[in-house]
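Figure 2 data, in text form.
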Amino acid sequence: MTNGTIYRTIAYARRLSGLSQKALSEKTGIDQSDISKIERGVANPSVATLERIARALGGELEINIRLKNEGDKDNDLQD
């Protein structure tokens, strides 16, 4: 997942959950202006911030690194 993808995913999940940025702000304790910056891809949120957002949206944060080797299937490393 690229940075651009995670920002779009957060915005999509928020809208799908029927939450405004203000409502998500209230659930997470993150300023609405910071949520806006995250969704526009102009902020660099910490993993802890992303986790708070994911939980507030009813999800969980998963980070993985996908290694691609020639001739091999994708290898996912997940924490």
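Caption note: The domain at 3-61 is CATH 1.10.260.40 (434 Repressor (Amino-terminal Domain)).
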